[in-house]
Amino acid sequence: MAYEQYFNGHTANSPWYWASAGKTLTATVTGIAQDQGLLDINQRVSDYLGLGWTNTTQEQENLITNKNLLSMDSGLDDTLGDAITTTNLQYLADAGTRWAYHNVYLKLQDVVAQASNQTWNTYFNENLKDPIGMTGTWITNEDLNIYWSTSRSMARFGLLIYANGHWNDTAILSESFLNEATNTSQNLNPAYGYLWWLNGKDSFNLPQTQVAFSGTLIPNAPSDMYCALGKNDQKIYIAPSKDLVIIRMGNAANDANFALSNYDNLLWEQINNVID
What we know:
With about 280 residues, the protein is of the alpha+beta class. Helices cover about 30% and strands about 15% of the residues. It has helices at about 25-35, 45-50, 60, 65-70, 105-115, 120-130, 150-160, 175-180, 260-275; strands at about 15, 135-140, 145-150, 165, 170, 195-200, 205, 210-215, 225-230, 235-240, 245-250. The strands form four sheets. It has a four-stranded antiparallel sheet with strand order 6-9-10-11, covered by helices on one side. It has a three-stranded antiparallel sheet with strand order 1-3-2.
């Protein structure tokens, strides 16, 4: 650990919410389940949850694979709020033809539970949390399932990913899945993998808009950097070329935000001043 600092009464033992940075936990555990032969991300979600998990036609629903949930291109209507009840999961476009930030990714937790014949929490704890010594818990808040932990536990997860899915001498996640997860997952938003944000691409899309923005996600950050971005500046930055894993938890640095904010680029400007 090169540097650690807490503010405003927060300590190394204080839990905090990951918000959408925790999406990467779901992606990782989905990959672990595939590595174990329990599921296939290229199969239809309905193969695991049964027909009728959406409010679409059977033909439309059968287009949606687990990979579409990982890639945020399910085609389901993202304007209807965070609820992922059947009635709220409505068709807007064919899966794979429209990228949109959507809470439906949480259905992957149900897929893992069904495929493993365990609860999501049990499978998560036994296959990710406990093997790498994380603390924390999933807390349901209305339509969201949010992970809370200490900053050091978030850092443990970041180090696991930085080490290509290995913890000491144990392979927790296959390098092949992690390579897919941290590279462009579809041709609609180059800056998005499997619930990971990717730097160094020519354009990017953001939550709640269909606008493609030109340029790289975080211009001051290394082009090989990828990250988990959560509401109000919850961050995991992994920069292999700099040998860095950086964690940021807390209230929003400036204005409330969904993922990307001005903080990202300003922080990397400061880092570049002290690290070549």
